[in-house]
Structure formats: structure tokens, C-alpha cells
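HUMAN: Quick job: go over this next protein and say how the chain folds.
***
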Amino acid sequence: MLMFVLLAGVRPVAAQSTDDLRKMLDANQAFALRDAVERGGDRVPAFFRGAVEESLNQVGAARRDLRRALDETARDSQEAFEADEMLGNLAFRNGQFQEALSWIERAHASKPDDADVNNMLPFFRALAEGSDMQVLELKASRLDCTKGLPVRINGKAVSYGFDTEANVSVIGVSDAKMLGLEVKHVATHLSEASGTAITGFDVAFAEDVVIGGLHLRNVPFAVLQDTGEPFVHVPVGERGLVGLQVLVAMKSIRWEPDKWFEFGAKARATGAPLRNVMFHGMTPIVRVTAAGKPLILSMDTGASDTDLNEGFAKALPQLVAAGRKEIRPITGMGGSNNYDSVLLGPVVFRVGGEDVTLKSPHVFPSHSVGKFDGNMGNDILKQAKVITLDFTDMELRLQ
């Protein structure tokens, strides 16, 4: 799992006024904000409409409303700073690196001491030195993924996993050398699950990437050492992860774990869309319930286990009080660290239209991955026969 975090997540309340919309945004209540904005329609200020549209990856509408908000507010206002960040997130998520840099530089000019923006700038500048990512062709495809996704990079075949919480695709040093990629060092750091930031890393562009019927140009990769997770035990030619920008370009993905993977075709779901997915910056977030309580989990196909955070403990204190205190490691690309945790009994989650039981999940009250109630891993997803993640209807569906 690999992530930068600029903006925030979610929990429902009902309200309509501008002050209430602001409170929702500040309190990371993205789904509640979406519902309130949709109820308010054209009466809602352009800034809040744009914030919701950006989180839904509605590119044209978000650009229109956020630019209108910038025209209507003072340049040094908090709203202008946030609109710049949102427009930067939107462009970055869709592979438009030149535009992303221009918005983040505007945000930096208005708040030069902001830590998140200062951390992002070197990475955005490195990506903007190359060309924007281009989708040359997208055809509906179904691929055998028993050994990973079959990918061709500059004409060479590799087999990679996919990670919804990787802001950009990731590759190990050995694979980058084998593929002949030119790397450039970036003096910044990446946040990751263990809490140990990866300080400084390389970035490389793959000029030509083909995955089934998807043909891309200028795909960026973060180049990481092979000495730790997730690549240390993986053969050369398999040391890579397809990240969010490529997955978004696929429009809709559907897979049976370790068997097949398809994309590009409209999801074959029955009934109305669940509308249970939004974006927090670069991270897909999913609305779920547990014991009748609404929760928000980040979605991380690169994680084996689901980790529950402080928000879960506050929402369901009775479950946590009945659990057993432990010390448990969290391992990520930066290494492994131990944290106080609480081992729970079985918890039933309603996820993607289905009930899924975690038999013994852990809560980490003092360590949170992101700004959510937990991070959903493959121990939830792989309980489904088929998983659909649709970036058009913005839904996660388990079958």
C-alpha cells in the first residue's frame, strides 16, 4: 500500500446550510456531504458541489464548479486553497501531471508552510517533467490472472498485482533494470501502512504499457528497493503493482480472486447502483456497516488483512471493550512496526450488498491508516466469488 493524503473522508449527518456543509467537509463526512449537496441542487455553492464532484471523479463538472468557486472567493481564502488541492488531486488521479502540478503550485503559493503540499511538490514536479499519461485504446478485456495481471511494458512481458491504494503504479528496482526504465530520484517521502515513511525514492516512466485491450502511453512508476515488502520474496518479472491511475483508466474492473480479471465492460450488476464508493484524494473509500453503525473503510487490494482504526473503536466501543489487548505488527513497504491493538471476536460487515464476517479482526486505537474507520484488505474481498469496482457508477459490489 502506497499513499499520499491531501483531503478527507466521511460519516453521515443531516443538514442543508452552508455552515453545515462546511462542518461535514471539515469532519471528513464525504458521503453525508454528497447526499446533502444532491438534495440542495443548484442552491448549493459551487465550492461544495465541486468538492463532491471531485470525490466522484466527475472530471468536467468538478473542474467547472471548482473553477467557478475560485472566481467567487478570495485568493488567500481556505476555500481557494482547498479548491486548488482538489483540482490537483483530480488531475493527478487521471494522469494529467502538468495540470496537477499547476494546481498544487497554486496551493503552495497561498500556503507555503503546508506540510502535505510541501511533501507532494517534489513528486508532482518529477512527474510533470515527463508527459501526461495517455489512453491510446480501451477495449473490454478478460484476462487470466492466476499468476498476476499479464502486462507488457515496452514490449516485455511481466506479471503484476494491482493495488487500489497505490497512487501510482509501483515497480521494484530489479524489474526497472530488466525493463530498461530510466529512473529519477525524488527527495520526498511516501506514507505507508506500517507508519514508517519511505524517505526518498525513484520514479520512472514506462513509455508503452499494454494490459489486454488497454494501451497506455507514459505510465509513471514509483521505483522501490527489492529488499523489503512487497517484493523481497517475488521473482524478477513479478515485482510490480498496477496502481490507481491505470485502474481508473479501465473504467470498471471485475475479478474472481486469483482466477480472472476483466475491465472496460459495464459491470453486470442487477438493481440500482449501490453508490458506496468515493475518492479521498487518491484513495477509494467505501461505505459499509457493522452492528448497524455506518463506517468508512479505505479500499486496499494490496493489503492482506483489514485493519480497524480509532473511528471504529469510537463507533462500536462495546465490541472493543469485550476484546483482548495485544501488541501486533503492521507491515508495509517501509518495514514493520508494533502497535497496541485489540483482538475482537467475530464482526459482521455489510459490504457491497453482502454480509461478510471477519472472525478475529484487530483494532488499532492509536494507529490509523488514513483518516477512516479502517482499511479494507483482501480478507474481506476474497470472501466474495466475484468483486466489481466501478469507477463510473462509483460502487463496490460483492457477489
